[in-house]
Design goal:
Beta-Lactamase; Heat Shock Protein 90; 7-stranded mixed beta sheet; 5-stranded antiparallel beta sheet; elongated
Length: 690
Amino acid sequence: MLDEIFQNIPFPIYIYDADNLKLLEVNDTAAKLYGYSREDFLQMDITELYSPEDIQTLLVLPNDELKKGVFTGPWRQMKQSGETILVEVNRTVISFRNTKAILNVIKEVSGEYQIHRKMQIYKASWEYASDIMIYTDREGFIKNANKHFSKVLGFAELERNLSFLNFIADDERQKISEEIFKPGKKQTVEIESSLKDIDSKLIKSKIISAPIQNYDGEVFGYNLVIKPIPAEVKSKVEKIEKDDSSEFGPAFLSSLFHEILTPLNVIIGFNHELIDSIENPSEEQAESIELIKQNQNSLLEVMNTSAEYVSLLQGNIQLKPQNIAFVDLLNEIEKNTEQTSKIQNVELTYGKISSSLIIEVDPQKLITLLSIFLRFALKIAREKSSIYISAYIWDADNFVIGLKDNRQQITQQFLENIRSIFTSEEALLQQKFDLSKFEVKVLKELTKILSASFQEIVREGVVVEFGLKIPRKFDADKIDETASLADSESHISDLAESQEQPAEVAEEEITIDEEYTIEAETNTEPQTVVSTQAAIESEVNAKVSSITEADSASENTAVIETAKPEPDLSCLSCLYVEDQVDSQILFRVQMKDLKSIEFADSLEKALPLLKRQKFDFVILDINLKGEYNGLDALRVIQQMPAYQDVPIIAVTAYALSGDKDKFLNAGFNGFIAKPLMRDKLTATLSSILN
C-alpha cells in the first residue's frame, strides 16, 4: 500500500542512502522529470543528478534542515539530456529497508525563476519607459503608475486609489468611461484624449488600454500606455484679432451677464422683502434665511471671480498703479473675506503691520489677490482656529505679507495645506478644500501680473510663516499686458528653496491688537448686486458657449411624464449622496413623504450606509467631495450584489445638451438637473419603477 502511495504522489520523489548516496527508490514522476527509466535511475547515485557546483551541498547537511522538512534551494540539477534545471528540495531522514536514508521531495522552479527574471525586465521597462504607464483596477482607480507619469504631468507623488478620469479633460471623461472602463469590455482599445497636468493644462495623448483578465476570463484591471502627441510646429503663427462685434465678443458677454443678473437682482430683492416681512421667524425659517444669504454671497463671489478670470483670459489687463499705504487696503480685504471667515468658523487676526509700508501698486489687483489667498487660507485652516496676517518691509525692493495659524509660527499641517494649493490639481483642491477652480487660476495669474512670488519665511532654520513677496514699486517693463492664462508660466517660487529673512523689520511699526478679529457681517443689501453687475458688465471679455443649450436641456429634464402613476413614496427608502448641506435640507423638505432618507457627502461615507441597510433607490450628485465623483460612485455601487437592480439616479447643478443621454449610457437609471424638486423626482421614479 505504501508503495502504491509513493508511486501515485504527483511530486517527484526519490530515496537515497544517507551514507553512500546511492539511489534506493524513485517514483515515476521523478524518473520522468530527469528523463531516465526507473532501472537506469536506480543504478545511479545522487551526485549524478547535481551540477558540479552544488555537489558539495550534499556533504554538509544541517540537522535543523532535516528536522524542519522545509524546501531549500534552488539547486542546479542535471537531466539525462544535459539540460540544467532549478529545483527546491524537501529532505526528510527515514529508515528504508533497515537503512538510514533520506527522502527527497522535488519541486521544479525553473519556470518560476524565469518569470522572476522576466518580471525584473518588465519592471525596468515599466519604470523607465518613455511613455506614461498606469495600472488601474476594473473601475478605473489607479493602483500604480511609472515615473514618467510624474515627469510629464508634474505631480510630485501620485495619490493611490484616485480615479484615472480625474486626469482626463472634463468633457472627455464620459467617452473614456464608455470606451475603456465599460464592464465586460475585453478588447484592447486605442483612443485619443487630453490629460490634465498639475496646472490643468491639457496634453493631447494617445491612450492604449489593455485589459488584464483573471483565471476565469473576467477583467480585473487595465494596463494603460499613454503617448503624448507632440504639438504641430508651425512656421508662421498668425494672430487673429477678435472683433467686439463677434458672436462671443465683449459686447455680447456684457449683455449676457446683464440678462443673468437682472432676474437675480429681482429674486434677491424679493427674498429680502419676504425675509423682512417675517417679524419672528421660527428656527427653521431662520435657518432658511441664513442659507439664502450665504448662497447669495457665494453667487456674487463666483460672478466676480468669473469676470476677473474672463478679463485675464482675454488679456484685457489695465493696471492703474498708485502710491498707497498698505493699511488702507485692509478694510476692503475684511469685507471680501468676512463671509468665508464666518462660514468656516476661523478668525482672521492682525499681527504686526508696518506703518511705513507705502507701496506703488494697482490696489484693486492686490486686493483681489490677497482676498482670494486669505479665503483659501480660511478654508484650509482648522475649524475654530485663527489666521494671523502680518505685513512688513522685506528688503529695499520688496515687502512681505505673512500668514500663520499660530502666534509663534505656522503649524506643519497648515503649511502642507498651503503648499498643496500650488502643487495639486485644481480638481483635487476643489474636492478637498472646496477651492474654486476659477479662483486658483486667478490667484496664479495675478501673482504673475504683480511680479509677486509665494515663499516660506524661515528663521533660524524653522519655517515661521508662509509669505507673499511683492515689489514695493511698480515696474511697467516687467508687466506683459498681453499675457493670457493659456500661455502663462508659473511665477510661484520654488517652495523647497525657502530663505532666511535678509533684513530687519522696519523699526517704525504699529501693532494692531492681536486679539482683534474680523467680525463677519450678515447684512447684505440688494444694491450690492447692482454694483457687482456694473463691474461685471465693464470687465467681461471672453468666449462663452452652450448657455442656451443648457437652458433647453434643463427644461427638457423637467418634463413630467404624467401618463404614469406617481409611486407611493411612503414605501420607499432613499440614500442621497450630496455634499451640499443646503441641497440636503431642500431635499428633506421636498421629499418628507418618503419612508426614510439618509444622506452622505461622499462615497466613502456612503459605503457603510449601503452595507448596513438596503435602500429602494439611490441618488448621486455628480460632483462630490473626496476622491470619487458620481461616475466613480456609480461603478462601485453597481458592483455590490445587493444593488445590481436598485435604481441609481444622477443629479447635477447644470445640464448641457446631451448630458442626459451620456449619464444614462454610463449606467444611471435616471437623470435630473438641479434644483431637485419633488415633481422632477416623482416623474423620474414613475418612469423607472413602472
